[in-house]
Write the structure tokens for this entry.
Amino acid sequence: MNVKNQIALAVLAVFFVFAGMTVNGESVLCAGMPLFNDSLTYIFEDVPAPFIGKTYLKSSFKSGGDLVLDQPGFVYVIVPASGTQGAGLQQQGYKEVSFRYSPNIWKGLPAGFKLKLFEKQVASGDRLGFGRWGGVILSDEKVVFDSSAREVNSALVPVPQGRPWWTQRHQQKLLEIQKEQGAFDLVLLGDSITQRWETNSGEAYGRITSRFRTLNLGYSGDRTQHVLWRIANGELDGIHPKAVVVLIGTNNLPPKRSTPEETIQGVREIIRQVREKLPETKIVIYSIFPRGGNAQDPIHQAVARANQGIIDIAREQGLIYLDIGKLFLDPQTGAIRRDRMPDCLHPGPAGYADWADTLIPLLNGFQCSEQPLQKTSL
């Protein structure tokens, strides 16, 4: 659905709401997108599955406005459950629609914040007015919500992060694959822990890249759903590496995101798609690294539960499994060693050196041989 260039500049409020649309065009709704065009306080994180890929209009945190549509369709507006926005939409002919949403639909929402969804079928030329707070979504067809269905596991729904640096890195990696004609020995697939091989590992990364032609597909902040999107959008196409090293899941586990069980479903789907894309490639999977201050930290416990699921995946799928979590822990107290993991999440240079020590001998086993890798902790 397209929006006519009909901003009424005489009405300042209208300019604030839809100026971004006239300058930048319509946006495809995805994770990482700001809710407002004049505030970065609220960011889409877990987009309701029926809305993924729909046209989204950034509204304003400061003001209201209106727009004219140039073709028929449906308009959906997400607003706070409290306040007067819903009543105002109903006066314009909108009806409330029941919909499921994650508590983490937007970063920045206070705990317990409730939302409502309103729907209206529109004709070409209809003028629509909106209040100062809400998310406006356009669809050519009616969006179907099954209120009786089990809530969707967001860890399984491929979405991009949507941040400019993230999109740029994705494009750069596709160009790197094209430039090197897919000639990589090793692919590292994961989140910031994997990405930081490039910047925070001291000499450890050079020990790997000097031996193996390496494609680093680590992205800061990635969860399983973001890796699934990257796989679906070309990052494993046209390559034939001897090994893929997977470390993913830690960003799914903070409160109000995914449960350990949901996270494992996402990891299992990643492995399925890696194997489908690269059937001849050996898959090495690491347990999620420890995080949090001590063994009593809830996130530490969530990691432990998820790692049991990773062991099951490795056993079921015949993967090479490595658990090096103890390298980051004090053997006496079980607390994270700050000399190995300074921020209790990302390895420092000494931690990456230990990691390289476990990985290089494994990779050496097939650098000069086509025999399957034998090392596994199972």
Observations:
- Confidence is low (pLDDT under 50) at residues 2-25, 368-378.
- The radius of gyration is 23 Å.
- The CA atoms of residues 182 and 239 lie 4 Å apart.
- The chain is about 30% helix and 15% strand.
